[in-house]
Amino acid sequence: MPIIVPLLLAVALFCIGVYGVLARRNAITMLMSFELMLNAVTLNLVAFDAWRVDGLATGQTLAVFVITLAAAEIGLGLAIILLLFRGHGHVDADAARDLVEAAPGEHTEVEQ
Predict the structure, then answer these.
(1) Where is the signal peptide (predicted)?
(2) CA distance linking residue 45 with residue 63, whole number of Å
(3) Are the CB atoms for 93 and 26 separated by under 8 Å?
(4) What are the backbone angles phi and psi of residue 2, rounded to the nearest 5°?
């Protein structure tokens, strides 16, 4: 198989992931979009490793690290989203930006 096929698939996955991060405001959809982008990177690593046959399996080794990173990212991200939903009843990323606690002695716009 020519290398262009997995690379084009990886570009399509990465573009869908970027669109999902930039256009959506739901935090769960944003996490799924991050996962799509990481899967595109993994596909590129494996495709280049298969294309450059040298016996070291460097791309496959890096792909395992990317998968491990993705698992840790989704675990931490879901924990943050669950805390946000339990505390405020929504998972809107724009509204989560406004949830910064004020330091003692400072007043926010809502309190004044």
Answers:
(1) none
(2) 6
(3) yes
(4) -70, 150
Domain at 4-97, CATH class: mainly alpha
Among 43-47, 75-79, 80-84, which stretch is predicted with the lowest mean pLDDT?
80-84
CA distance 7 to 95: 36
Q: What is the dihedral sign for C-alpha 27, 31, 36, 40?
A: positive
Q: Which two tokens stand for residue 18?
A: 């970027």
Of 36, 35, 61, nearest in space to 48 by CA: 61
What pTM value is reported for the model?
Answer: 0.79
CB atoms within 10 A of CB 31: 20
Interatomic CA distance for residues 75 and 83, integer angstroms = 13
What is the identity of the amino acid at 77? G
- Identity of the amino acid at 16: I
Q: Which amino acid type is present at position 80? A: I
> How far is residue 67 CA from its own chain's centroid?
12
